[in-house]
């Protein structure tokens, strides 16, 4: 399941369809790690984050900084319900992942 979300000035991201696919409801506790500039988020009863009453997620400033996210950036949310994990890919990560494919499609050689 995929979704796109804009990052709010306070780190708010929301996509109720993606969060529902993971079974995340208001109050669901979450653990968060950053791997390769991508936020990796999973339900965890001991997690330091929680879904808001509006069923949004707020990424802490430290995570936004590590992922190179600014307010208004759009991020790709990739939910893996079988693993109970959400990957939040920032624009720079998407650029790296798609660079070779785009170069080939546009008639150039991959980098």
Account of the 3D structure:
With 111 residues, the protein is α+β, with helices and mostly antiparallel strands. The chain has one domain: Transcriptional regulator MraZ domain (Chemotaxis protein chec), CATH 3.40.1550.20. The protein is 24% helix and 32% strand. It has three helices and eight strands; from the N terminus they run E-E-H-E-E-E-E-H-E-E-H. The protein has a six-stranded antiparallel β-sheet. A two-stranded antiparallel ribbon has the order 2-6. The radius of gyration is 15 Å and the shape is globular. 19% of the residues are buried. This is AbrB/MazE/SpoVT family DNA-binding domain-containing protein. It comes from Amycolatopsis ultiminotia.
Beta-strand residue percentage: 25-35%
The side-by-side strand order for the widest beta sheet comes to 1-7-8-4-3-5
Unreliable sequence segments: none
Compute the average pLDDT: 92
Structural classification: alpha+beta
CATH third-level topology: Chemotaxis protein chec
Radius of gyration: 15 Å
Distance between the termini: 29 Å
H/E element sequence: EEHEEEEHEEH
Helix content: 10-25%
Count of individual helical segments: 3
Q: How many individual domains?
A: 1
Return the CATH architecture. 3-Layer(aba) Sandwich
CATH superfamily membership, which one?
A: Transcriptional regulator MraZ domain
């Amino acid at each position: 399941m995929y979704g796109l979300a804009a990052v709010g000035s306070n780190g708010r991201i929301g996509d109720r369809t993606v969060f529902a696919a993971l079974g995340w409801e208001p109050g669901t506790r979450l653990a968060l790690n950053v791997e390769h500039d991508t936020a990796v988020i999973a339900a965890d009863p001991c997690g330091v984050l929680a879904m808001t009453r509006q069923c949004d997620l707020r990424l802490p400033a430290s995570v936004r900084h590590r992922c190179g996210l600014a307010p208004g950036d759009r991020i790709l949310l990739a939910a893996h319900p079988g693993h109970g994990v959400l990957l939040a890919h920032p624009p720079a990560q998407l650029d790296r992942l798609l660079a070779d494919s785009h170069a080939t499609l546009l008639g150039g050689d991959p980098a």
